[in-house]
Design a protein that fits this description.
It contains 6 helices and 3 strands. With 96 residues, the protein is of the alpha+beta class. The protein has one domain: Orthogonal Bundle (Arc Repressor Mutant, subunit A). It has a 3-stranded antiparallel β-sheet with strand order 1-3-2. Pfam families: HxlR.
């Protein structure tokens, strides 16, 4: 559990993974969906997720430069877990 939390246990990483979901997205769209995160923190978190093999960064050599982010197979394996956490929260929010 300690190792898992070290990999995805920050405030933003699970939200980034959940936001990416099953589709490739550009930085601006990810940031727009996550209004409360600064661009600096989003950049740092994406870089760490890439280093951990959870996110793939694809840069296109065109003008203006374009970069797309997507989940790797390792990252895709986390989606059902995050969906279960979301469902758990919804179930227990109703009881309050």
């Amino acid at each position: 559990m300690t190792r898992t939390m070290a990999t995805i246990g920050t405030k933003w990483k699970p939200i980034i993974i959940y936001t990416l979901g099953l589709k490739k997205q550009r930085f601006g769209l990810i940031h727009a969906k996550m209004e409360l995160i600064s661009k600096k923190i989003l950049t740092e978190q994406l870089k760490e997720l890439e280093e951990d093999g959870i996110v793939k960064r694809e840069a296109f050599k065109e003008m203006p430069p374009r970069v797309e982010y997507s989940l790797t197979n390792k990252g895709l394996e986390l989606l059902p877990i995050l969906n279960m956490l979301t469902e758990w929260n919804a179930k227990h929010q109703q009881g309050q």
